[in-house]
Write a structure and sequence with these properties.
The structure holds three protein chains of three kinds. Chain A is mostly helical. Chain A contains nine helices and no strands. Chain A has one domain. In chain A, helix 6 packs antiparallel against helix 7. Chain A starts with a helix and ends with a helix. Chain B contains three helices and no strands. The longest helix of chain B has 25 residues. The mean pLDDT of chain B is 88. By secondary structure, chain C is an all-alpha fold. Helix content of chain C is 74%, strand content 0%. Chain C is built from four helices and no strands. In chain C, helix 1 runs antiparallel to helix 2 and helix 2 runs antiparallel to helix 3. The chains are: A mainly alpha, B mainly alpha, C mainly alpha.
């Protein structure tokens, strides 16, 4: 690491400083604080109930959620696909690595053999799991009312599911079959909910249940349902990813 | 607000430089999560609680967890590589 | 003033990240540099939708505030952060494989070993 400071290559440094000098005036010329908003204006007018708004209101109290799941729902589907590809790729790379290179285990002798992380962590993990699950589900289900939603709550759920088995035996306990079932089912449900809108004659992923009262738990049509699916899918994916990252220490020691 | 933003930006830049130049990998990982934390506060300041929550849970929480697990997986946490 | 500070911070993060990406000698630091550059890009996108005096785009007590910040960049950054962690995990997985195969993460050594393998 020490040669990191000593041996400075000047060309990349010069390039990045030049890039900075180019970017900074460019961005400073942008209007800060009163930037024009085109799509945002339409969405806000629809939400505020202005007469003659271009788009329809979705009925979600949290406008970011309505953008993520209704106005740009297809974008979120693509994002889920990218996350799926990344998680699957990471799992594939790690799994094939542990299987193919199992013969030269002498290279990995430095990896920790003791997985027991101590009584304190063990008990705390067991006690925290239900609380974390509750918080995660709460965040997912209130995604259309308050800040939060499927992505954030999904991560909390993933960590809650992963924590106890990690504390005990390095994360090997999570059943891969159950996780992939949950993930596949959630992804398929997301698409099916979108297809129902198509069948009703609306564009793909248009919210289609009753909009209800603004600010109620059961409001905004299918948005809470969609966010629940996103939360389950993200949670399952990331739990599997964490398991892959943690499990190999156990195999190789 | 300007003062807080200045402070947070300074913390972020110092954390970024520390993450790339520090000798110990552990310090680098801690600096990266410090950067995510400062970015979370900045997002709150920019009236984006949704994004702040995502950055806090996903960026600072899960990202740091993944990096910390990588430290032990790659055996970078003891001595110099 | 606020705009200058925030835009400079975002550009500084991007520049530091790119510089670290191209000239770090250790591959793990390259991943960290990627994370830093990504944070800068997210901040830049957020600044594009910020409005002075605008409120959070969430209805409180059944009605929306009159002036709000733009929700569209917020939604995009939200997805970008999640994708970023996915990419980070993928990069870490690749690093684990590199370490298993070559036993080191020093960029020069890994490059030399890879070229040796290619020329075999």
């Amino acid at each position: 690491m020490s040669e990191l400071v000593k041996r400075v290559e000047w060309t990349p440094l010069l390039f990045s400083v030049g890039l900075g000098c180019l970017l900074l005036p460019l961005f400073l010329a942008l209007p800060f604080g009163n930037s024009p908003m085109v799509a945002g204006e339409m969405i806000q007018q629809a939400a505020q109930g202005v007469q003659g708004a271009v788009v329809d209101s979705v009925g979600a109290a949290n406008l970011v959620t309505s953008v993520v799941l209704a106005y740009r729902g297809l974008d979120t589907l693509g994002e889920l696909a990218i996350l799926f590809a990344a998680a699957t790729g990471a799992g594939m790379v790690l799994q094939s690595g542990s299987a193919a290179l199992h013969q030269n285990t002498k290279m990995h002798k430095h990896i920790d053999s003791e997985i027991n992380l101590g009584e304190l962590f063990d008990s705390a993990a067991t006690m925290l799991t239900p609380l974390l699950l509750l918080v995660g589900v709460y965040i997912i289900l209130h995604g259309h009312l308050t800040p939060g939603g499927g992505f954030q709550g999904g991560v909390v759920v993933a960590v809650a599911l992963f924590l106890p088995s990690w504390a005990r035996n390095g994360g090997g306990q999570l059943s891969h079959k159950v996780i992939s079932r949950i993930e596949g089912g959630a992804g398929a449900s997301f698409i099916v909910i979108g297809l129902v809108a198509l069948w009703q004659g609306d564009p793909f992923l248009t919210p289609w249940l009753a909009q209800g009262e603004l600010g109620e738990l059961f409001s905004a049509g299918t948005l809470p349902l969609l966010y629940l699916m996103v939360g389950l899918k993200v949670g399952a994916e990331l739990a599997a990813l964490l398991k892959y990252l943690a499990i190999d220490e156990q195999v190789q020691s | 607000m300007t003062l807080i933003a200045l402070l947070l930006v300074l913390v972020m830049v110092v954390a970024a430089v520390t993450a790339l130049l520090s000798r110990s990998h552990l310090t680098a990982v801690v600096s990266t999560s410090l950067l995510s934390l400062a970015l979370t506060l900045l997002f709150v300041l920019l009236k984006a609680p949704d994004v702040a929550m995502t950055e806090g849970v996903v960026g600072a929480g899960l990202g740091s967890l993944i990096l910390a697990m990588a430290l032990s997986r790659l055996a970078l946490n003891r001595g110099e590589d | 003033m606020l705009g200058i500070i925030l835009y400079s911070g975002a550009v500084a993060l991007i520049v530091i990240g790119i510089a670290g990406l191209v000239r770090s000698t250790h591959l793990f630091r390259a991943v960290l540099a990627l994370v830093i550059a990504e944070s800068g890009a997210n901040l830049l996108l957020m600044l594009a939708g910020f409005r002075l005096g605008g409120a959070v785009p969430i209805a409180t007590e059944g009605s929306f505030p009159l002036a709000m910040v733009d929700p569209v960049p917020q939604a995009m950054v939200l997805t970008a952060i999640v994708i970023g962690v996915g990419i980070q995990a993928l990069a870490i997985a690749l690093l684990v494989r590199v370490k298993q195969r070559y036993g080191t993460l020093e960029r020069s050594k890994v490059t030399a070993a890879m070229e040796l393998e290619l020329n075999k």
